[in-house]
Design brief:
With 633 residues, the chain is α/β, with parallel strands linked by helices. It is built from 26 helices and 19 strands. Helix content is 41%, strand content 18%. It is globular, with a radius of gyration of 27 Å. It starts with 13 loop residues before the first helix and ends in a 7-residue tail after the last strand.
């Protein structure tokens, strides 16, 4: 009898290899690429290995790595969140600095502003409530009415704790909804009572989700969509003996959602979805099959591609810049987008349709230049392993999604990592694709002029510099979080922090709006100024990349300097803090009349303007200024 064939060799786990060689700290910047290729089991192991690293050692070796300070508390044992969260943040190029609260100490942690979760500099406080906070306090035996009473009390308490954190804490407080374990439903033997319990529980979670509307510094993660996947709610033995309320799969899913939140909060959410067409948005190859032969809604796989198109259209409607990047001739592609009756996506859903035979990485570079956004803002989705591999090799900044295999899974893979997630969506976000399309028209308009000055004169640029109103706060906060290139200090602020500054004596938060002959660009910038002394301080100046090179920043700064002089200020001070992306504005203040006043080893530079000679507002700007909010005079 012949021996059984040997099993195929398993691929080496690169993270485990780095651990064995003692190189994890030295190679930490490689982790995003390495973790991307690992399966779920290998990622779990990687999380355990990475959570053993000292954050201080990693930072000493790589000072530029973004660090996220997270305090974790909740019902029962919550330390299990740290390994998967460490891995998820590493996958996105970030480093976790965790603090894990004591067993079951969530109430004391959040009620006491002197507790560790309120430590200065904490970016996220993650509280994991669970069904136990309710069922531990119902009478025995219990009825759905008892659960309703205790659940109402707990949601009210969580709201009060969110208010305490809003006034005394830093960063963002994160709750999860509370899944209802089958164990409790099954204790009710009649279906009417089970239905009543389900309704009570859903109403409680709905109120918990609604707390976000009352507390700007709160995010509530809805676990229902997570539990619709393969994640199990709990493992009975771990819950009973270790007090761990969530199973490993659900804990990993929560870690993934928290990492998405941290990524968005740090300004690393993606902005552009560059998507292939053939066998990605429709079935078949247009050049071979023709418009009549591609599968869009009918056919064996047509419904899968229709589903993918609906998802992409929905993302575009929520402010994601969707571009088609395809190896095809342009006119047949346009014909399909304009005329194919079964297409969900149309040409105006895309900010740009790029169809040619150039290498896709070259097209992505050109697209980034046209849109004036960094390549690290891109997600590239394609079914071809060759194209995905080439883009990943040539443009490592781009996030590459290989949509291989069954097209019914394309949409799920696109959405799995929440690349475009932000806490809030503003009206400016929703209009972003339209404004970028207008910007591309402006570029075509520019090409018709022989000089930039002639172009700017004909562009009819209108700018408003005004004190930020309450309605402006979400957009201003978002600009601090998402603007990277023209951001002089890269200080990220949450809505409550912006609102506090805007309403604080001795501070000005100024909003910049602009428009031109092609349309309204909306709220595109902000200036934060301290005015509580003889020397005013510009704490930050930021401007959307969509409106660079139009003189807007020079005009607004000149108006601010004139206002400072008129108000009796002796000088205006400002600071530039370097980041990996704002190097193009390092000389912004010197170019506008500021003198250097010292520079630290990390490149942070201080400047001062004595208000003696102030540059003029560029002549092509129509600038309107309002230093006080309407109704405050």
């Amino acid at each position: 009898m012949s021996a059984a064939p040997a099993p195929p060799p398993t691929a080496p786990d690169p993270v485990a290899e780095l651990h064995r060689s003692g190189s994890l700290v030295a190679e930490y910047p490689r982790l995003p690429a390495l973790l991307r290729e690992l399966g779920e089991n290998e990622r779990q192991r990687a999380g355990r290995l990475l959570s053993r690293l000292s954050p201080d050692e990693v930072l000493a070796a790589h000072p530029g790595i973004p660090t996220v300070s997270v305090a974790v508390t909740g019902h029962g044992t919550v330390a299990g969140l740290v390994p998967p969260l460490t891995m998820e943040l590493a996958r996105h190029g970030m480093l976790l600095r965790p603090h894990v609260a004591d067993f079951g100490g969530w109430l004391f942690d959040l009620a006491d502003p002197a507790s560790e979760v309120y430590a200065a500099g904490t970016d996220l406080v993650v509280c994991l409530p669970a069904a136990g906070i309710v069922f531990d306090e119902v009478p025995r035996p219990w009825r759905p009415e008892d659960v309703e009473r205790v659940l109402t009390e707990k949601v009210h308490l969580l709201g009060k704790l969110a208010a305490t954190h809003g006034t005394s804490g830093s960063g963002t407080l994160v709750y999860t909804t509370m899944p209802l374990p089958r164990e409790f439903t099954s204790q009710l033997v009649d279906h009417r009572s089970r239905a009543r319990l389900g309704a009570v529980w859903r109403e409680g979670n709905a109120r918990l989700l609604g707390l976000m509307d009352e507390h700007p510094g709160l995010v509530v993660l809805d676990l229902d969509p997570v539990l619709s996947g393969p994640a199990a709610l709990a493992e009975p033995r771990l819950e009973t003996y270790a007090g761990t309320p969530f199973a490993a799969e659900l804990t990993a899913a929560v870690a993934r959602e928290v990492a998405h939140l941290a990524r968005g909060r740090s300004g690393r959410a993606k902005k552009v979805l560059a998507v292939d067409l053939d066998n990605t948005l429709w079935g078949g190859v247009l050049g071979d099959d023709g418009p009549e032969g591609i599968e869009v809604a009918d056919g064996r796989t047509g419904r899968a591609f229709q589903r993918m198109q609906r998802v992409v259209k929905q993302l575009a409607s929520r402010g994601v810049l969707v571009a088609a990047v395809s190896k095809n001739d342009l006119e047949p592609v346009r014909e399909v987008l304009r005329e194919h009756q079964e297409m969900t996506l149309r040409e105006d859903d895309f900010v740009r349709v790029v169809a040619n035979w150039a290498p896709k990485h070259d097209n992505l570079r050109a697209l980034a230049e046209d849109l004036n956004v960094g390549l690290d803002s891109f997600v590239f989705a394609d079914d071809s392993p060759y194209e995905c591999g080439l883009v990943a090799s040539e443009l490592p900044e781009v996030t590459v999604l290989h949509l291989d295999g069954d097209p019914a899974l394309h949409a799920e893979r696109l959405l799995a990592d929440g690349w475009f997630d932000v806490r809030d969506l503003t009206d400016d976000d929703v209009r972003r694709p339209e404004r970028y399309r207008e910007e591309l028209v402006r570029k075509d308009f520019l090409d018709s002029f022989s000089s930039l000055d002639d172009y700017l004169r004909e562009l009819d640029v209108r700018v408003e510099l005004s004190a930020a109103a309450e309605a402006d706060v979400p957009r201003v906060a978002q600009l601090t979080q998402r603007t990277n290139q023209f951001n002089l200090t890269t200080r990220r602020l949450q809505q409550d922090e912006v609102a506090s500054l805007a309403g604080s004596p001795g501070n000005m938060v100024l909003a910049i709006r602009c428009g031109d002959r092609f349309g309204d660009n909306g709220l595109v910038g902000a200036v934060f100024v301290r005015t509580d002394g003889p020397v005013w301080h510009v704490d930050n100046f930021l401007l959307s990349c969509r409106v660079f090179a139009r003189g807007i920043e020079q005009g607004c700064l000149a108006a601010l300097l004139e206002h400072a002089r008129a108000e009796g200020a002796e000088a205006v001070a400002a600071r530039y803090v370097p980041s990996t992306k704002n190097g193009k504005v390092r000389d912004f203040y010197p170019r506008n009349g500021f003198d250097a006043h010292g520079q630290s080893e990390d490149g942070t530079a201080d400047f001062r303007h004595e208000l003696l000679e102030i540059g003029a507002v560029p002549g092509h700007l129509d600038l309107t200024v309002r230093w006080e909010q309407e109704g405050t005079r």
